Amino acid sequence: MPKKRLSTRNVRKAVRLIGNFHIAVEDMYRMLKFESHNDFSRAYQEAVGEPPKEHRNRLLRVARLLARQEKTEGFKRKILLADDAYALIMKENYTVQNAAQNLDMSRIKLFRIFKAVTGLSPQIYCLANPDLLPSESVEELRKISVSVNLFCG
To answer: How far apart are CA 34 and CA 69, in angstroms?
Structure first.
């Protein structure tokens, strides 16, 4: 049987499902109509760059880090830079390289800022969240962190 790949629409769904901590990673393959969890994990890793469990764990770490760092000026500046890059990529159709040049930084630095703020690379974040600024995503992650802390103790 041929391998199933994640379509663009399913990448968006999968990334949103990973951010929903009430849904087990093992159950997501059914929601996206994969044959098995292994097939889903393989397709997710090809599309996003890491297995779904590792990605969820990193998002949780980012959410907890956000809860501690959100008041610092440096982090607020990173959020603003990520918002500016998102606007350039989504609204002006810039590439990540061109957005980085426009913001006077290297592509790697922009990638690291985006990863620190959103937990995703700029390309995957823009694909998965076409209408959600990184600052709004930070707010969502903060809410997740609060609910996870309340749930887990």
So the answer is: 38
pLDDT in tens, 105-130: 999 999 898 888 887 888 888 888 77
Q: Are 49 and 124 in contact (CB under 8 A)?
A: yes
Q: Is 30 helix (H, G, I), strand (E, B) or coil?
A: helix
Give, for 33, the enclosing helix (H) or strand (E). Answer: none
End-to-end CA distance of the chain: 44
Q: Name the helix (H) or strand (E) containing 2.
A: none
Instruction: Retrieve residue 126's tokens.
Output: 């823009």
DSSP 8-state class, residue 32: T
Structure-token match 């809410």, residue found: 143
Shortest CA distance to 111 belongs to which of 97, 121, 124? 121
**Quick check: 15 and 4 in contact, CB under 8 A?**
no
Whether pTM exceeds 0.90: no
Amino acid sitting at position 82:
A
The Cα–Cα gap between 112 and 118 comes to: 10
* Gap between the Cα atoms of 38 and 74, Å rounded: 40
